Amino acid sequence: MLQRVLPAPEIAPQRLHQAMRYAVLGAGKRVRPLLAFAAGELAHADPARVEIVAAAVEFVHAYSLVHDDLPCMDDDVLRRGRPTCHVQYGEATALLVGDALQSLAFQLLGEYRLADDMRTQLEMVKLLAAASGSRGMAGGQAIDLESTGKHLTMPELEFMHIHKTGALIRAAVLMGARCGNGLDGKGLSQIDLFAKLIGLAFQVVDDVLDAEAPTATLGKTAGKDAKDGKPTYVSALGAGRARTFAQELRQQALAALAAFEGRALRLRQLADFIVLREF
To answer: What is the C-alpha separation between 25 and 4, in angstroms, rounded?
Structure first.
C-alpha cells in the first residue's frame, strides 16, 4: 500500500521522490498502521478504507523521524539500520521529504472515501492534524528539546510523551475505528484509553531499549538519550522500575479492552508486542 500511494521514483522531482520512498519503505515495526487495522477490525471497518488511514499515519510518523534526525534536532546518523535521510540525501532534501510526506498524508484523507458520514471523515482529518501539531507530536518534540539537561518529574515526562509519542498512536487507533460503524461513544472512549496507555508504554520500552540494547539491534544509535542528557523513564526510574512500569501500563491497557472480549484480540496482541519487544 505504501509503495502504491507514494510517488514513483522516476516522476519529477526524482531525487525528492526517491528520498521519500527511502524514508518510508525501509525497515520498521509499522506499529501505528497495525493499531489502525486492529481498531478498524474491532469496528467492522472495510480494510480498504483502513489501509488509507494506516498509510497516512505512517507518512506522518516517517516525516517526524526524518525531521527528528536532522542536525538541528537530535542530529542522528542512523535510522532503521541505515543512514538517516539527511545523511543519504542532504539536509535540504530531508527537510522537503518531511514536508512532502506530511502533505501527502492529508491528501490521502481527502482523496478517498473513508467513512459513510462525511462529518466522520472530517473528524479523522482533525484527529491527525491535532496529533501532528503543537498540541501533539510537534509540541512534544519542542518540550523534549527544551528539557535537554533537565530533570523532569514523572508527571512532566508523561505530559511530554503523551504529546510526542502518544498523540499519533491515539490518532491511529481512533481513525482506524472511525472507518467502521461498530463502536458507540463508550466504545471509542475505551479504545482511546487503551491507546493512551499503550502509547506511554511504547515510550517507556523505547527508553529502556535505548539504554540497554545495542545499536545493531535497535537500528539507531544506542545510548544517545543518556549521552545527549535527555530526560527519560530510565533516568527517572532506573531500567528495572521502568520495565515494571511498562508492564503496569500494559495491564491497564488490556483492562480497558475487557468489555470487547475476543473482538479486541488484535489490539491485545499489539499491546503485548509493544511492551514485550526487544527491538
So the answer is: 11
Q: What CATH number should be reported for the domain whose range is 2-276?
A: 1.10.600.10
Cβ neighbour number for residue 229 with a 10 Å cutoff: 11
Split at pLDDT 50, 70, 90, the class of 213 is: confident
Compute the distance between CA of residue 151 and CA of residue 154 in angstroms, rounded to an integer.
10
Calculate the alpha carbon distances from 85 to 3, 21, 25, 76, 248 in Å.
18, 10, 12, 10, 36
Q: How far apart are CA 160 and CA 162, in angstroms?
A: 6
Q: Give 2-7 contacts, CB < 8 A, sequence gap 24+.
A: 2/55, 2/58, 5/52, 5/55, 5/104, 5/108, 6/104
Q: How far apart are CA 226 and CA 4, in angstroms?
A: 39
Nearest by Cα to 274 from 216, 177, 204, 215 = 204
Structure confidence by residue, pLDDT tens digits, 261-279: 889 999 999 999 999 886 5
Q: Cα separation of 228 and 230, whole Å? A: 6
